[in-house]
# Entry
Amino acid sequence: MIVVVLQVTNSAELSRRQAAAALALSLALAIVSKHAVEDPFRRGRAKNARRLRGAYVLGATLVAVTVVSAAVPQQYASGELDRLASATRLDDTHPGALALDPDHPRAAPADAPLMPDPAVAGTDWPLNDQAAGCTVYDIEHWPPSGDKCAYGPQTAPKTIVIVGDSHAVMFTTVFARFVREHPQWRVKMMLRNGCPFTANPPAGLTVCADQNQAELAGILAMKPDLVVTSAMSPESYDKDLKWRWESREQAVDGYEALLKRISDGGMFHATGKVGQLWADGVFMAQPFLALYGKTFGDGTYSFEESAKNVIVYFDHLKEPAKGLLYHAYDEDGSESWASGPGHHSKYHWARAIGWLGMAAIDLLEVLPAGHPRRARLIDVVRFLAVGYQRYQDPKTGRWYQLVDRGADQKNWLETSASAMYTFTLSRGVQRGYLDPQYQAVAEKGYAGVLDQVSIGSDGLTNITNICEGTNVGDTSYYYGRARKTNDLHGLGAFLIMNEQVAH
# Structure
């Protein structure tokens, strides 16, 4: 009875009024069946042939109604599945497909249902790979062997990636068809039921975190032209699977974090800096990642990822006219310090530039000789060397806190950046990346840093004029940063420099 009501009302679930009506009708039929059919036979009340024939007829009618009630919805559902499986055109019941209509691309109407449902996505178009486990990769099997979850020619110049949970599966049918009809495209599917493509998985779903990172690495390596993802809403995960985020905002932030990371592949250095690339952030991961790859035989990913990140940072932050880098870049330009069409900060903070230069040099120590990104990294070092030489203080050999503003009275000569620049120049000349003329710049920088070193009354070494940890700001902010003695930023930079120059 419930199935019949759902079919008649075209509903997914019963309202309270419909439930009450279904209950009342069921009770009425049960009472009629009991008094008019069951009781006459059970209690022997059928006194004559006419009454007995009436009981038989009513019983047969109820049986027929029951059979029809069960068969009609089943036939309707079967017909719907057949219709979906044999669909040959894009229409309003497939809103995800409408944008791909080559003749009349259009957005889906606001009230169009999200079809097909994940439950029938496998029969909406015969994607045989789904039955073979294409949509349910296990983490331990990633990356998958072969290319069974790809559709379209392997040599196609353009690539689409579909990534996410069972809701993303809904898009597989239309894209598989699309690439069949457009041989210049291929589509790769990275799907697992119950695993949303997010940096913040809901509580109880941490098993997907490793897979998401592996998928992200695969996407970045492929450099697809289009990435499509979809997932159940946070409320649905909570309701259906009892997995929940702390808030809807946390869920949205998780999706945005991975998607923004995809846009050009740059890693932001903190979860509070989503979509931002700071020059001083690049050293925090990339040299370690490259060395990890070399040490543990994972160079295919680690070398490419680390080198690409240095180049992505560099391309967003460089100012060719000066041979310097801006401190930071914001992808959507929403930060108060982001300026102009380049969305970068306005000033050239010395230590941030030094970190990127050292990162490039360190990667060149690790990357194989034939790696395709070595040439770009050498170009980065040469670019910076020009700026280092141009803005070196001729009197002290050091460099200013804001590199190109040496004439500002409040500006000051900073030690940690000076050590970093000296290291980069010295190693660059030694490895043949830089012209030998830069050796003199390095030697002058080394002497300038040594001028900031002294022996205290306790017999220990002190290094002065080291800028404390610094965010992005204006000139007053940079000039006003505390000048520390023996701050770890300066001690580490000094040791790296001294190891290179003196040994």
